[in-house]
Design brief:
- The structure is a homohexamer of 126-residue chains.
- Chain A contains 6 helices and no strands.
- Chain A is mainly alpha-helical and 126 residues long.
- Chain A has 2 domains: 55 residues, AhpD-like (Up-down Bundle); 68 residues, AhpD-like.
- In chain A, helix 1 runs parallel beside helix 3 and helix 4 packs antiparallel against helix 5.
């Protein structure tokens, strides 16, 4: 699958790459964005959505990033797990926090599977 | 699928139910535990694991609960999503926090799918 | 979603229903087949495949049925989990065997998630 | 992702590695355990759970291992599929048994998907 | 989970509901939007994205809708499968087309599972 | 995992390989078939099913191939995503069509996740 570098990108793609670099303070964008650049409207829309969702709000940036990591690992996406583990560390996730996040992911997977295998009826009032 | 009530439970199951009720300060256990009681060793082991994992540590209880919810929703488990949404609310998740958690789950699902559909190579150094 | 009963079925569907009833020694077919009857070629092909796969071979019928149940529960299919739990019981799965199967499903889910979240490299030689 | 070798491990991790090697009669532990060693409490808890679940019981060790493999393959975990295929072979799974297990996994995936796409109602009495 | 009706909605939500009704020519919005209205920014962003993605382009509306249905069924989302089956029918999917779509979904699930269980290496050049 | 080449294959496997090559007009079969050849009955049955399902019908070959790709990407199968992206291109999927297919996959993943996390009740009449 082709990765589109800045030098080879059309202006619409360069504008998104520039915004990602400025917003994140990084020298280059991740492979995800270079791959998504094959379809400029999806690149732009996805970046605009992600920027809006990950902005600080009722949840702090580290919590959002760890939720992103939890969802990505639960979905089994290797690329996403790798990049959001790195992003969470950059935002302050320590080894101890990562270890506990892994433990929660593991026990959630186990109880999710058991609840489905036993077809447990949802508790009244929920 | 049968749910085993306290009154009908063998002593080994009652002991676990008692510990759940004491630890959580609740009058009755959730359906999940009543269903899991069909196999007492799995009931006890699962509860012991969950109690250890969800105890306060490097991550606070609310963050752990929201990670549990994120993993459960990403895995598509309806029972788990219902019960961990309620648990997170009981631990302090506001409507605004829930809304942002949902937004993170949604964008994570979208970018996970795109990363896999494009087979994006993991960035160097990760 | 419509369920097609024998009385309302076209001859091609009736022929498959008859073969299911004869092969399994049952008075009526499960809802799955009544739903699949909306597309007779898929009904026939799916039944022929299933009949061939589930026939006794190097694995005995109960082991095959428990593997089917494990795969269905791991995939989170509620209908399939319900019907293959019943089928496994009919073929001899005891409560104790079911309990151990659930325990394996649970620990497999947990270690699967951890292996993916940690991106563990496959061991040399495998 | 770092793999922690025995020589570099803290005593708590070494104790688990020793127990794995003794229980399984192997010279070294799999990468899964070396990766999990980043969080010693999760390493120890996971190993203790797995050892308990996989011990002989109402189901024999080979059947348990094949169920583990079925669940892992259904969950799409490449590492787990590789290691449990090897483990099942070591416990006596022949080529013919593996072929039939694959066939069951395939037909289960197909019928799971069809049952969900058709939203088949669960049969009365199940 | 609460569904927010138009009469009870804040102006920001009403504006989105109005746009959905106008764009689709319907008298009321689906439950999905009423549920998503708990978080107005996610409601608006999701609707804007969906409207942009589903607009006619290189793929016609029916093909897009069937792809949406295929992805939803493959992800095991019951709500999404129900609503996109209805939407595809409204856009011209006949019974025969639906039957063939189901057949493709089934065989894709089977071969996906087998490819993963066998860990097939990607063909050279792809 | 072993790949079985034509030169090393038993007659039953060669017959299937020959039919694949003739039907598709290709010089060699994909790795998927070479891997599946470890179990000749599953190889033959899977190929016969796939050939029947993918034959022209109410849906044209390109639409079927894109549905196959959508289901494979939604299921997170890397091998299947790679091979069906190539197959769809060979049948006429342009870059613009691929970009729109990706966009549909992404928005479907997002709304699927949100619908499940919100436990949206299925709309009346569906």
């Amino acid at each position: 699958m082709a990765l589109i570098e800045y030098a080879d990108a059309v202006p619409e793609v360069r504008a998104v790459f520039d915004d990602i670099k400025t917003t994140r303070g990084v020298a280059d964008v991740n492979n995800f964005w270079k791959a998504l650049a094959v379809h400029p409207p999806t690149l732009r829309r996805t970046w605009e959505s992600l920027k809006q969702v990950m902005a600080p709000g009722a949840l702090d940036p580290l919590t959002k990033e760890m939720l992103y990591l939890a969802a990505s690992a639960a979905a089994g996406c290797a690329y996403c797990t790798a990049s959001h583990t790195a992003a969470a560390r950059a935002k302050g996730m320590t080894e101890a926090m990562h270890g506990e996040l892994l433990a929660v992911l593991g026990i959630a997977a186990e109880t999710n599977r058991l609840a489905e295998a036993l077809r447990v009826p949802i508790d009244q009032g929920l």
